[in-house]
Amino acid sequence: MLGTPGEPRTPYKPVFHTLRSMRGATLKERADILARSYLDQGVTFDYAGEERPFPLDAVPRVISAHEWQIIESGVAQRVTALETFLDDIYSREGEIPRAVHEGIVPWKLIASSSHYHRAVMGIRPPNGVRVHVAGVDLIRDEQGTFRVLEDNVRVPSGVSYVIANRRAMANVFPEAFATMRIRPVHDYPRMLLSALRAAAPDGAGDPTVVVLTPGVFNSAYFEHALLARMMGVELVEGRDLVCVGGQVRMRTTTGDRPVDVIYRRVDDDFIDPVHFRGDSVLGVAGLTSAMRAARVSVANAVGNGVADDKLIYSYLPDLIRFYLDEDPILPNVDTFRCADGGDALRHVIDHLDEMVVKPVDGSGGKGLVVGPKADGATLDRLRRTLEEDPRGWIAQPVVQLSTVPTFIDGALAPRHVDLRPFAVNDGERVRVLPGGLTRVALPEGELVVNSSQGGGSKDTWVLSDRRASVPATMTATENREVVVMSAPTASLEDSMRAQQQQQQQERDRSAGAAGGDRAC
Fold it and tell me: Rounded CA gap, 64 and 461, in Å?
């Protein structure tokens, strides 16, 4: 917030003067109102197996219009390159991907990724889009440069908190929205619905879109329900859908209805028990065959996780130059590939106490080892692990994330933050939501910002040259009278198995995980 002692940076001047004019009791009262509103609304997250209200800090993060132009262009560029990469490896069945043929990425790294799925090889989405929604994690380093920490193009989550944060802040700090030109975020559900409808198979004049959730025990269920309600579409579970004759149909109180687009929040391993986990009760049997027959579209596409692999992340600057003939707008964090072996692996092993070491296929901040904070026994175990499985790890130097004043125990104190902008691709253009989720590490000195590790969030204010109005309460774009009817054959045993698999999906996503929701 401050450029020099006592002098706020230009974007922060209104916030700075507002905070200076407030008494501590007034700010605490408003912070308490924010906390109570989230508790009343059920805006929660999973922390150590317990559902808690999501912490929203009373001090926003402010990004200037110029800075946002760089972020927006850089995120759109990365999404475009990732789309091209995924098309290159999945659509060219029987051919060597161009990036492999030209020596940009070794084929063995693609084929050995745990998220590369041959079951969807050759499937071409109707409008060519595989990354309908992307969340790109950014940090700001010591020089003030925004850098990409990782890309999330499987089932990125967190946008519901962006919407909920803005609603809460607009209610608690209305004077800020009356005096500052803050770009709105309430248009996201319409952007998403438009992109999903654009992804419908050919011939679907008025496509039926559904949100597929693992169920109420999933830590992101609040988001699934919120997005379905705001888009005016049905929220369904796997048992509500059935694949008949190569077509996915939804059970409703008025009979079965065909489904054209599924916005899935179920992981690949559980999406189709025919081609993936045979014991899954969260997905839809035969869904992959329906996708191959172009009778249904799934967003985001199955198999996208290979682009989330942190080894592939390390090659993305080269992929941008190769596919787009452009220099990367947003640089990566410097990354050592342990899989390269030789000098790279030896350098990491010799400097473990100076590095952040991450599993290549993880997310959630678990499994990550911050070398300067690790004890000798932890580093010894990690050293043996790297020697046994170098393909599974990358290493990065510790980056001291930028800080934003945060209301802690009745006073303002600096806390480290990152930023996850969300992008939506409708096949015509990549649109980046102006704001994104700023995550803040609440413990002093902590660099891990994700909520599952005790972090919170801030409302992200992107400034504009045009005045933005206070966001109105969103309503569904369409009122529907159809009610989804769950399959009557669901037994108690199946329900228990579904709960266990929802929880296992959460564990699988975070076990051994690293950079997905953290910044260091």
Answer: 8
Tell me the mean pLDDT in the region 53-63.
Answer: 88
Q: Is the dihedral of CA 166, 171, 175, 179 positive or negative?
A: positive
Any idea what the Cα angle at residue 346 is, between residues 345 and 350, rounded to 5°? Answer: 120
Helices 159-172 & 188-198, crossing angle to 10 degrees?
150
pLDDT of res. 509: 56
Contact between 167 and 43 (Cβ < 8 Å): no
User: Can you read off the two tokens belonging to residue 435?
Assistant: 């704001």
DSSP string, 449-506: --GGGT-EEE-EEEB-SSPPPPPPPP--SS-----B---TT--HHHHHHHHHHHHHHH
- Beta-strand relationship, 261-264 and 133-140: unpaired
C-alpha to C-alpha distance for 294 and 125, rounded to whole angstroms: 8
59: closest CA among 28, 25, 99?
Answer: 28
Q: For the segment 99-130, what is each residue's pLDDT rounded down to a tens digit?
A: 999 999 999 999 999 999 999 999 999 999 99
What's the pTM value of the predicted model, to 2 decimals? 0.87
Q: Is the pLDDT of residue 56 over 60?
A: yes
Average pLDDT over residues 6-28: 86
Query: Can you tell me which residue has the tokens 């027959």?
Result: 293
Q: What does the DSSP 8-state code read for residue 275?
A: T
pLDDT tens-digit readout, 416-472: 999 999 999 999 999 999 999 999 988 888 877 766 666 789 999 999 876 444 444
Look at residue 177 and tell me whether its pLDDT is greater than 90.
no
Closest Cα partner for 184 from 167, 160, 171? 167
Q: CA 183 to CA 164: how far, in whole Å? A: 15
Residue 341: how many CB atoms within 10 A of its CB? 11
Mean pLDDT along residues 76-84: 98
DSSP 200: S
Token pair 């290493």 is found at 395
Residue 70: name the closest of 421, 323, 378, 321 by CA.
421
Residue 266: both structure tokens together: 């179920």
What distance in Å separates the CA atoms of residue 307 and residue 153, rounded to the nearest whole number?
A: 7
Quickly count: other Cβ atoms within 10 Å of residue 22's Cβ: 14
**119 vs 491: which has the higher pLDDT:** 119
Degrees to nearest 5, angle at CA 165 with 163 and 167:
70
**What share of the chain in percent tops pLDDT 70?**
86
Cβ proximity of 420 and 138 under 8 Å:
yes
Whole-Å CA distances, 513 to 152, 163, 390: 13, 27, 15
> CA-to-CA distance for 520 and 518, rounded, in angstroms?
7
Record the tokens describing residue 465, joined without a space: 């040259």
Structure confidence by residue, pLDDT tens digits, 148-165: 999 999 999 999 999 999
Distance CA 248, CA 243 (A): 4
Report whether pLDDT(496) > 60: no
